[in-house]
Amino acid sequence: MGSSGLPGGRGPSSFVQSRTLFLINLAAIMESADERLLPAVYQEVGVALKASPSKLGTLTFTRALVQALFSPMAGFLAMHYDRGTVIGIGTIIWAGATLIVGLSTTYFQAMIGRAITGVGLAIVIPAIQSFVADSHEEGRGLAFGWLNLTGNVGGIGGSMAATMLAGGRYFGMDGWRVAFVGMAVISLGVGWLVYAYVVDPRPVSEGSGPGTFRESLSSSMTGVRSVLKLRSFQLIIAQGVIGSIPWQSLVFFTMWLQLIGFSHSNAAYLMGLFSTGCAFGAVFGGWLGDRAAKRFPGAGRIMCAQYSAGSGVPFTWLLLLMIPQDPQLFWLYGALLFLMATSISWCQSACNNPIFADIVPPDLRTTIYAFDRAFEGSLSALAAPLVGVLAEVMYGYKFDVLKASEPSAANARALSNGLFACMAPSFGICAATYGLLYATYHKDKDRVDAKVYKDRERRPLKMEEVSNAAFSL
Fold first, then answer.
1. The pTM is what?
2. Which of 198, 232, 257 is the C-terminal boundary of a domain?
3. pLDDT digit string (tens) for 392-424?
């Protein structure tokens, strides 16, 4: 298990820092790959477990809800324990859960596996985000962009491999099961490497808090209450609850493409183009957000986020309702998916994560990233089953287990209508909600800069003092 620094107060060597950042990004790659594994094989899982679109959406809902509910625990763990250990253990947890899903023979077993996966992801994601924030004082937007890019590399690899494997049988197992078992084995290895070799740049004593559990829990709750009072945090959570709905809905895209008539391999390539667009969009959005913040302090990042969210409305209209649903139009779908992904993927790297890092002291960063995921994920998780319900109840999707793996123009149209009904309004409301940040962000940032960072230069503060100084309203 990696230590939190070197003796005598010195930080880790450049080699150790490079190794640590490499392993943290490797964990981010595996997290994204695991998260996109199930949506990539929805059609095959539906046939194997006799699950309709609404039931498949409920599997994603279960994972997302559990992840949201357990996210605050990540804040407590990362504030009081070595973050490399936290990330490593979380990775091992989700690896075991992925194996459970791959070996499931009933829908209920798969649901249990996805719920446990949510626990592991809840622990890992906020800890990784705070790790990046602490490692990059300048250019945080670009740093988060690169983190999103590496994550999307995992998403591309995981979803493409799973979709291509899904149509066959290997070692006597269905291809989708092989994909889950393989992901579990690789994730176990990555989890052990992170646990053993990642060195937290923050000394444990800085985040370890008081000696007893009760005092530590009280200290954490003080930070939590402070986080909840931030106006900018409240607004980003409000837009995030709505803005996460389209991203939760995207879990049906691979299945939708297969219903149109695209082969497993072509559907995988198209989703690979989408993920590639997300990767480049996140980096470009982070870079643009940094430049905009220097040019228009207090407004530049928000402007980038408004454009990115707002662009989702015309793109979803074109993709889901306007162009013909014809598998011969591979390159048209590919171009539109890539352009859409490049445009809608700026918000986290350009705005949300850098703003959180700006308005919260380092001691509380993991907490605020954790509660962001808790509030946003708990409500937006309803999007996946909602898409399935709308497609089945309002737009005429017909589930037949004997024909579930075959293309169906009627079902493709019903699913696209359900997707549009969830995605387009959410993008528009999200963009409008970002506008309220113009009145709060600069005030929150100035308060923290004036009352926390200057004070911390004069003397070290305890957690409670930092919280009260920064967030007294």
1. 0.73
2. 198
3. 887 778 766 445 556 778 888 999 999 999 999
- Whether residue 412 sits in one domain with residue 269: yes
| Look-up of token digits 């808790």 | 374
**CATH label of the domain that carries residue 115:** 1.20.1250.20
Q: What is the pLDDT, as a whole number, of residue 207?
A: 44
Q: Where a domain ends, among 145, 167, 198?
A: 198
Tokens of 259: 């219903």
Q: Is 205 part of any domain?
A: no
CB 164 within 8 A of CB 270: no
Distance CA 71, CA 435 (A): 27
pLDDT tens by residue, 42-68: 888 888 888 888 888 888 888 888 887
> Residue 129 is part of which domain span?
13-198
Q: How far is the CA of 360 from the CAs of 308, 352, 444, 448, 469, in angstroms?
A: 24, 12, 9, 7, 11
Rg (CA), the chain: 22
Share of the chain above pLDDT 70, in %: 79
State how far the Cα of 429 lies from the Cα of 105, in Å rounded to an integer. 40
Please give the helix or strand (H or E) that residue 435 lies within, else none.
Answer: none
Q: Both 284 and 174 in a single domain?
A: no
Paired with 173 in beta bridges are 170
| Six-digit token string for 358 | 């700006």
Distance CA 126, CA 91 (A): 13
Res 345 pLDDT > 50: yes
**What sign results for the dihedral spanned by CA atoms 309, 130, 471, 373?**
positive
At position 221, the amino acid (one-letter code) is M
